[in-house]
Amino acid sequence: MVEKHADLHVVLGATGAIGKAVAAELAARGHAVRAVSRTASGPGTVRADITTAEGAARACEGAAVVYQCAQPPYAEWANEFVGLTDTVLSGVERAGARLVAADNLYMYGPVEGPLHEELPYAARFPKGRARAAVAEMILAAHKEGRVRATLGRASDYFGPGGLNTVLGAAIFGAAARGKTARWCGELDEPHTVAYLPDVAAALVTLGEDPKADGHAWHLPAGPALTGGEFLDLVWKAAGGKPRSAGLSRGTQRLIGLFNPVVKELGETWYQRDRPWVVDDTAFRASFGALATTPHEEAVAATLAWFRQHG
């Protein structure tokens, strides 16, 4: 075990949307931050390949808290996520640090009613099983005393810098250009959406409070909206003539014949054809009423970012 810095917070995957938001939130709260990426460089950034034990150890060295925001390419989750998690755990263990893992909701599979943390890991498709295996690995490592660890789970996110999400270019990029904004799924079903800065604030809250350890938490988000309601907010911010549409399962299958990214969405279509509402009661009861950004404000900020960045 190496000597650790009392307040060094390390962000793995710091060039991704969630990692970048977490690093910004940590800096805003006055923490010492090391941003880690396999490719990027710059002040305060360490270039490291965390898919290897040596790279993970270098990335985590001296850390008090490590935020695991890195992930394999979406299509490779089933093949690569468990191995990545294994090397990250080895680096965190060697550093004697706490681990906060950015997680999602795939492991539950189809559910009826609000999603809460006591649901079984019932996913039967490859990406869901990979996410379940990763969560089980992390919580087992905590139980065994290898690391102190927690997971923060969020639904589909959007926000400045949020490109690799179904709530990104297909909605905000299109609206910024006056094109048709397309909601992935049924337009009349309620769906919890998470704003990137709110996700980051909740993950950092977990990183600051050791009582989070040993558990998975659903991160706070605003009230669920239907796809139609979300698109209405986007066009309210964008102005001009609203142009909106829903992407049906049939259209997804058709586009997926020649678009591999859209094809991958078929595994989780159950999140898009029925209510998908996240219960964040446990987080709020344990860590206080963490404020979330009003949807209208969050949508306007996201649209402004897409306009600025083309």
Automatic annotation (TrEMBL):
<dbReference type="InterPro" id="IPR050177">
    <property type="entry name" value="Lipid_A_modif_metabolic_enz"/>
</dbReference>
<feature type="domain" description="NAD-dependent epimerase/dehydratase">
    <location>
        <begin position="10"/>
        <end position="215"/>
    </location>
</feature>
<dbReference type="Pfam" id="PF01370">
    <property type="entry name" value="Epimerase"/>
</dbReference>
<dbReference type="InterPro" id="IPR036291">
    <property type="entry name" value="NAD(P)-bd_dom_sf"/>
</dbReference>
<dbReference type="InterPro" id="IPR001509">
    <property type="entry name" value="Epimerase_deHydtase"/>
</dbReference>
<protein>
    <submittedName>
        <fullName>Nucleoside-diphosphate-sugar epimerase</fullName>
    </submittedName>
</protein>
